[in-house]
Amino acid sequence: MRGEKEFRKVRAHGQVVRHALFTLRVTDYRPRYGETWQPRAMIGIVVPKKTLKLAVKRNRVRRRVREALRTLPGLPPCRATIHPNAAALGAPFAELQAALGQALSGQFKPRKKKPAAPGPRP
């Protein structure tokens, strides 16, 4: 994914899937303006300094997640952002890959949004 605008769309409209190794937000695939219809997975990886302080560790987690996604067979067409936790750094690669595959294929049930609290009564 490119640009803050695409990340904001996923954040606003995406379903959240939480796992011990990462948090995933997924929406369905829609082409960019003027782009032809080519269903594919567009995934952004976000690792903030708050999660991992050292740049070396942040980059290593990004590389591990990117490789796990690259080697997964048949990703569904979607737009997604992945926020790996610090646990993803030390988890076995096969476990990380299996968890990402399950989350993207929809085997984890997304959390339902809490109903909005009623506003103050006049």
UniProtKB/TrEMBL annotation:
Statement: the UniProt record of this protein carries the keyword tRNA processing: yes
Entry GO terms, CC: ribonuclease P complex
SUPFAM superfamilies attached to this UniProt entry: Ribosomal protein S5 domain 2-like
Keyword Nuclease part of the UniProt annotation: yes
E.C. number: 3.1.26.5
Any one GO molecular function term: tRNA binding
Top EC category: hydrolase
Domain of life: Bacteria
Annotated function: RNaseP catalyzes the removal of the 5'-leader sequence from pre-tRNA to produce the mature 5'-terminus. It can also cleave other RNA substrates such as 4.5S RNA. The protein component plays an auxiliary but essential role in vivo by binding to the 5'-leader sequence and broadening the substrate specificity of the ribozyme.
Protein name per Swiss-Prot or TrEMBL: Ribonuclease P protein component
Source species: Deinococcus irradiatisoli
